[in-house]
Design goal:
CATH architecture of the largest domain: 2-Layer Sandwich
Radius of gyration: 23 Å
Shape: globular
CATH topology of the largest domain: Uridine Diphospho-n-acetylenolpyruvylglucosamine Reductase, domain 3
Bound molecules: flavin-adenine dinucleotide
Number of helices: 16
Number of domains: 4
Length: about 475
Amino acid sequence: MNTTLEAGTGDDAVLARIVERCGPAAVVPAAETATRALNLRGDTFAPLPLIRPGNTAEVALVIRLAREAGKSIIPVGGATGLVDALRSATGREWYLSLERMRRIERIEQDSRVAVVEAGVVLQTLQEAAAERGLLFAADLGGRGSATVGGMISTNAGGERVLRFGMMREQVLGLEVVTAGGEVLDLMAEVLKNNAGYDLKQLFIGSEGTLGIVTRAALRLRPAFAGHHCAMLGIDLDHLPRALASLERGLGGTLSACELMWPEFIELMTDGADAPHRRPLGTRCEAYLLVEAEGGDPEGDHKRFVEVLESMLEGDIIRDATVAQSESERQAFWAIRNDIPRLARVLGGAVGFDVSVPIATMAAYVAELRAAVAQEWPQARVVVFGHVADNNLHVAVTLGPETEAQAKRIADCVYRGVTARRGSISAEHGIGLQKRDALHARLPAPVLALMRRLKSSLDPDGVLNPGKVV
Ligand SMILES: Cc1cc2nc3c(=O)[nH]c(=O)nc-3n(C[C@H](O)[C@H](O)[C@H](O)COP(=O)(O)OP(=O)(O)OC[C@H]3O[C@@H](n4cnc5c(N)ncnc54)[C@H](O)[C@@H]3O)c2cc1C
């Protein structure tokens, strides 16, 4: 099989060759790609061809042809990423989507392993696991579109990290196509595997800059028999005590703990067009959405309620309402997960995804608000996040902000993060959006090592150029 291009062959000839080898469904023309939604802000993809291979061999072929033609590749999953990692940085890329690679190959019930193609959508995998009495533990608001490949490539976090870890902890094995078009079979199906360097870790969280994830072996767990959910009102001074009481009292069943400052709840529940109802009557400094999940519905529920009662009696929380039905539970989660409304209402809000130690979180947010208010009294600051994972999402908006203002806002947000040895990207990654901020803050030898890693795995800059490093 000869895939070498003739000198002087244009892009159209290469695309024609891809169609010839992979079929007409494999290439979406640039004009059509440009009508697809790129993000929650309503932007669309750049007018670049989108290649849709049907299997791993076709992915490898496309990468080889692209490299030989001097093209770069932007790998595309469900386009739910939040850091502009799918934006064209050079205008010379092709998109490569795994939307024709959505097969759940096997679910091994006894071994609790799912083997899937990387284009499988999270919700599809969750439902397939649930049908067999199993759970795929990673979960996030974009579940209806986010793909396994995208989640692996961003090391996605989400709502159950405090109990089950990030995507990295769900991956047993990977198949990856390298920038040279080689297929790496790293498809182990066991939890323990210290056989040499753990190469799959290189690709997890690398945002499509080191390899294309084509298949994965994923860890499953036994499904829960019940979910126990409540909305709590708290004073921020009591946050660390509240988290400690929940973790201790719920004995390993606590699986989600989401903190929302009042502006977040108001944005979701106040005003004529508000799609959600206020979950608590009492106005509090912050609100915690907590969920416990376990195998003994009655016993777990009793303990859940007892723990909340003792926290109320001990003045660790100010108010609590326990979801009495699945629809009430869904209503609490709908408030937390209505990120599309947040994006709509705040328009061009500058969005951050930072982490800071739990004990300093309240002080961090207070300092940030003061710094922003001093410079821009009209600014709106909305904060919420996966609090037990140290993770806060921060949106700051001045109305439309200029590029210079956006940079100064970022400095305000990151100052307190760096001072607390936190992270400027807790779970969303770097993409194009956070790249300059990352480079400005990484120690020089660390950035240099990242660049050496990139150039040794992708010397020609074929994979997602301009992102991360
Ligand atoms: C409503 C909403 C809620 C969200 N909540 C969370 C949350 O709680 N936690 C969280 O971590 N994220 C969250 N996100 C962000 C997003 O869902 C994740 O980043 C997700 O992992 C991206 O998956 P995707 O398939 O959409 O990837 P895309 O957005 O398509 O791509 C993301 C990155 O992965 C690369 N990529 C995609 N597929 C592959 C592949 N097969 N091989 C190599 N690289 C690839 C892309 O090039 C890009 O760099 C949320 C997003 C939305 C819209």
